[in-house]
Amino acid sequence: MGGWRDMPAEALEEQYSPSRWSPRLGSDTVIQAHIAATAAGTERARASVRTSLHVPYGPGEREKLDIYLPTDPAGTFPVLVYIHGGYWQCLSKDESGFAAPPLVSQGVAVVAVGYDTAPKGHMDAMVRQVRRSLAFLAQRYPGSRGVYLCGHSAGAHLAAMVLSTDWAEYGAVPDIKGAVLVSGVYDLEPILHTYVNDALSMSREVAQRNSPMLRVAPAAAAACEVLVAVAQHDSPEFRRQSQEYGEALRAAGWSVSLLDVAGVDHFDIIEKLSEDTYVLTQVILNMISRA
C-alpha cells in the first residue's frame, strides 16, 4: 500500500506527535507554552469582550458554550464557532476564546464549544456533541448572517465531520457558510496504531465511521467555502492528510482553498489568531465579508 502503512511503529508515532516537529521549542515545552498562550489569550478576551459564558447546549457537564459577542444587539452578526484541539483528550472551551478580540471588533460573534474529551468522551459522542452545539446555535441565533466553523487539530477533524451531517435528526439546520480547518486529521486509521488511541480506545469501525476522508458528501448547491490550512512545520503526515482531504472535497464539487502557512508550527498556527494582522485572521474576515 505504501505511505503510513509501511512506516515502522516508532516513525508513525513521531509523525503523529506534532510537538516533535516544532523548531521553536522542545516537545514538552511547546505543549505547555500552547496551553499557557491560549489560556492567557482567553482570559484577555473575557476581560475585554461582552460574553455569555457556560451556556448549556445539552445536559452534560461539558456541553456548554462560551459566547463572545459584538455590540450588535439585533443578533444579525455572523457567528464563528471555534472547536478546540488537544487530540480529543485535553484542552477545553476555557482555553478557546483567544481568537475572539480581533473578530468581535469586526462584528463577528465567536463561540467556543465544550465537549467531552477522552477517556470520558468517545469519538461518536464527541462528533454528536459538536453537531448538537451547531443545531443549538441555529435556534438561538436564527437571524445570524451565517455560521463559520474553525477547528484546530482534533477540532479540525470535528469541524470536518460537521460538514457531513444529516441535520434531519438534529431538529435544526445551521446556515454554515464557511469552514476553516487548521492542521487537522481527516483519516483516523493511522491514529489506531499510535499512542493517541490509548485514551480514545477506537476500533477500526469507529475510526472509519468518524473519518471525514471517508465521509465526503457531494457538494450541495449552497455548499460552504472550505479553507484547509496546514503549518510549514507540521509533520509530513499532517501535511499529507490536509492535502488529500482538500483534494477529496474539491473532487466532490466543494469550493476549497489550501493554505500552507509559512513560519509556524502545529501550535502557533492557531495561537496567532489572537492577532489582528495574522494571515488566518484576515482570511477568516475576508471569507465572512464575501458571503
Describe the structure.
The structure is a single chain. This protein is an alpha/beta fold and 291 residues long. Helices cover 35% and strands 19% of the residues. An 8-stranded mixed sheet has the order 1-2-4-3-5-6-7-8, with helices on both faces. Helix 4 packs across helix 5. The protein is globular, with a radius of gyration of 18 Å. The chain starts with 8 loop residues before the first helix and ends with a helix. The model has no long low-confidence stretch (mean pLDDT 95). Helix 3 links the parallel strand 3 and strand 4. It is built from 10 helices and 8 strands.
Q: How much strand?
A: 15-25%
Order of helices and strands: HHEEEHEHEHEHHEHEHH
Low-pLDDT residue intervals, each spanning 5 or more residues:
none
* C-alpha geometry: globular
Radius of gyration over alpha carbons? Answer: 18 Å
Largest sheet: 8 strands, mixed
- Total strand segments: 8
- Reading side by side through the largest sheet, how are the strands ordered? 1-2-4-3-5-6-7-8
Ends distance: 41 Å
Briefly note the structural class of the backbone: alpha/beta
Mean pLDDT: 95
Into which percent range does the helicity of residues fall? 25-40%
Secondary structure layout:
Elements: H1 9-15, H2 27-48, E1 50-56, E2 64-69, E3 79-83, H3 100-104, E4 109-113, H4 123-140, E5 147-152, H5 154-162, E6 176-182, H6 197-200, H7 204-209, E7 225-233, H8 236-251, E8 255-265, H9 268-271, H10 279-290
Parallel strand pairs: 3-4, 3-5, 5-6, 6-7, 7-8
Antiparallel strand pairs: 1-2, 2-4
